[in-house]
Each structure stands twice: as structure tokens, then as C-alpha cells.
Hints:
Nitrilase/N-carbamoyl-D-aminoacid amidohydrolase; six-stranded mixed β-sheet; 20 helices
Amino acid sequence: MVDFSNSDIADREMQKFNFSAIIGKISRFLRFLIAKERLPAYLAVVAGMVAVRGLPPINNEISMMLGFCTLFLLLAGSSIRRGAWLGFLFGCGHFSLGFSWLITSIHTYGGFPFPVALLALLLFSAGMAVYPAIFGALLPRLAPRPEMVPLAAPALWVVTEWLRVHLFTGFAWNLSGYGWNNREAILQIADIGGIYLLSWLMLFPAAMLSLLWVRRKNVKTVVVCLGLIAMVLGLSAIYGTIRIDLNNRAKNSPRWVAPLKVALVQGNVSQDQKWDPDFRGESFFRYLNLSRSIMEPVDLVVWPETAIAFFLQASPKAMEQISELSQLIGAPILTGAPMADKDGDGQWVFSNSALILDERKNLNQRYNKHHLVPFGEYIPFREYIPDSIKKITAGTSDFTSGTSATPLPWNKGNIGMLICYEVIFPEEVRKLAKTGVRWLINITNDAWFGETAKPQHLAMARVRAIESHLPMVRVANTGISAAFDQFGHELGRIPPNEMGVIIVELPRGNSKSLFSKAGDIWIWFWLYLSIAALLPSLWRGLLKSR
């Protein structure tokens, strides 16, 4: 989603700066800092990169555990300054590799030169690395002895992830708990503590391994460490297996409610064509023709984000064609489209919207995206930013935010509507679940993110389904389109970069998970565990003072 008309302006603006000189200065500064302790610094960066291998699409949990284990060992006995520096370097390695798809967004589709895109990735990663820096500064203080690391480190890391999700509009991408994506049984504990409990479960074995390494000559400690790892992972897997088994039994129960039949339509419109005025009509007809191929009765047809890449209010012909399609299929069409409205002052405002359209040609069943992407869909602090600086998605005007946690009404049950990266925020989906919605639907256009981001985004949608006990339908322009039941079990998918239609049977969710009811309490539990490691030391100090 890119406004190509802004590329020349951006190039002229960027030519004012010598990016090679800036990168050279940053490089010299980093070399100066690293020279003091080269080996720990290099190890911290490499450990952060190794930990990324635990995330989709690689899903190697052992790599993630070893990466964090290395970080814990590097931080042992560190001062606040040294710990913050090592945590920062770990974060730089972790995020620069984990967010590398941003180069595709900024350079390939944003129209910015590659050095600019690379610099933006490095600066953004450095900003995100502040959270691991906080972790590195605090951990040696909270866990001065190796035996306290398994208690403090996993919980403290979860606290820093929670901060990353919430501060400065939040960026909840690639939380460490998504490393369990290939372990369906273990994923089930997300209905208790959400993605944060999964993150704790990923880091607890890493912390135990760090203790095992420090006390490797003590046979008793080795046995205890391995036993605790096996017990915690085993109990999580047993819990998940029981839940999945209960779900399978429920499907055979006479009380089982007939599922909803939903058609997922993936048009696979390339990003360089999507907003091309000469191709918009062809893209629209592609979705019409794919939907006409649906031969069996369905309850709902879902198209992806901005599948309609023009203003429906100004296109009565398109509305007529959608109405005829809805009558032919016998089901409404849920689609993404940009919308234009006038505010109280008579000024045009623009929204990234989702609409349910049927034969009535009514645009009132609508949801406006409320958690917008900074710089992608709007420019933060616009009143202080020159008008020549444009967002990198299509159109010259910023999108306006809609109302948060608002269900999309539908006669078969309210829908929890999520557009694009709104699905990555656990608390926002939890708020939707508490409104009594029966299903979650996420429409997105991942074409401008690059290939690595697609399975990562999909994994986040899957965990939201488990957290909320609500089935999830996810439809993406270029994939990966898929559907999950409330246990995260995949009901069907369309592979990336292919056109296709699939029909899934979606059970009705109940949104009665512990996380959906009381998820906001968990942060206090993680904070308590983070500082609990200090209590023995404080107690001994109190006794000595007496």
C-alpha cells in the first residue's frame, strides 16, 4: 500500500543528508563502545539473532532458549550500565533480524532508497532495544545470585514485553511466546495467561539452563534443573492435551451448535498493482469472479483489507455488482475498503474500514480501524510535521482512527473485527471478547511486509483465538489466509502468493477464557515475581541489622 506519487519528493528530501556519513559515524561510535568488552558485546548481538530462530517461520524453540540463556549468563554480576548495554545489544540483534521485513515495506513499496530503509530499520530496532536494555540493567539487581535467575528473569522479560505492547502506541510484534507456534498442546495455556504466559514458559527453561551451566559440577543442581524444566513443560502439554481432547468430544455431543460456513477469498493482487488506477477495476473483478465460483451455500464471504481499493460512496456501479453477487451467493460480503466522510466542520476524513455488504446496498454495517500504523497510515504529531512528509501507504491524507473495541453487528452474531495489525495486540482483542462477540475476523494486506512477516502475523492471530476462546478467520490479500477454532486448531488455509477460495466450518465461541475475563491482573503477578527474588536477600539483611 504505497503512494508512488510521494517517491520523488522523498528522494529530494533525503538527498539533503549524507546517509553514508551518518552510518559511518554510528558505526565508529558502536566500535568505540564495543572495544571495551568485545567478546560479551558480540555474544549479546549474536544471542539476540539466534533467539529469532525460535519465531515463525523457523520455529526452533531450542535456538530461542539458548539465545536467552546466553543473555542471562552474560548479565551475571553486571553493573547497571554494563547490563543495560548488553541488553541493548541483544535487543539490537534480535529486533534488526526479527523486523527485517521492514526493509521491504520502506524500500520496495515505500519508494525510499535502500540506505534510508536500512537506517530506518536500525534506528527502529535500537528504539525497541530499550526494553531489553531495561531488562539487562535490572536483572543483576533483582537476581544477584544464580539461583534467583529462574525466578526473576522470565517474569522481568514478560514485564518488558508488556511495556513494549503498551507504550507509545505499542508494537507487539514477535513476542517470545510465539516461539511455541508449532506446539498446539502447549499453546493452550494462552487461555489462562495469554501470550505473556507463553513467553514466561519460553524463558523459564532458558533461565534454568543458565543455572545448570553455572552449577554444572553439582549433580543435585543439574538433576533439579532438568526435572523442573521437564515438569513445567510437561504440565503445560498435559493441560493442552486435555483441552484439545475435551473439544474433540464436544464436537460429537448432541448439544454441539451447527457451525458457521465462511468462504475466505484471497485475490493475490501484487502490491505494485493494488493501488494502480489502471488496475483497480481488474482487481475488483478478480474478487467478484473468485466469489462467483462458490458453489455451496455459505453464511458469509470474507475479502481482505482494502480488497476494494476505491471509495464505494462514489461508485454506485460497484455497489450494484456487489449486491448482485450477494444475491447470487445467498450471503453477505465482508470486505475492506477505504471510506470518506465529512466531519462536523465539513472537512473530509478518511478511514480504513470493514463493511458487511448485501443486496440492500447499505453501507451502515461498518467498522473503522482504530489502532492505526504510525507513518504507515498516519503521521504522529501531524500538526508539527511539514505537509511534504507523507505516510507511506496509498493516498496523500492521513487515515482517521475509529472507536476502539467496537463489535461489528451481524444477524448471526456480533463479529470482533480486526484490521491488519490490530490482531497483534492481546488486550484489544480481550476487550472485544468481553463485549460478547461470537467470532473474530482479521482482514489484512501483508503484501507490503515481505514473506517473513506473513507466518509471523498468522501465528499472532492464532494465539488471539486461544486467548479469547473465539474462532478466528484471517483473510489476507496475498496470504496467508486461514481459519482457526477457539483452540487454535487450523480449519483450512490458502498458501501465500496464490489466488484461491476455501470454505471452512467455524464453531461458535464463548469468550469465557480466564485471560479474557481477568487478563489485566496478570501484569501484577509478573511484577511480583520479578522482585520476589530480592526478598531472601532483604530478609537476611533485616536479620543482620537486628
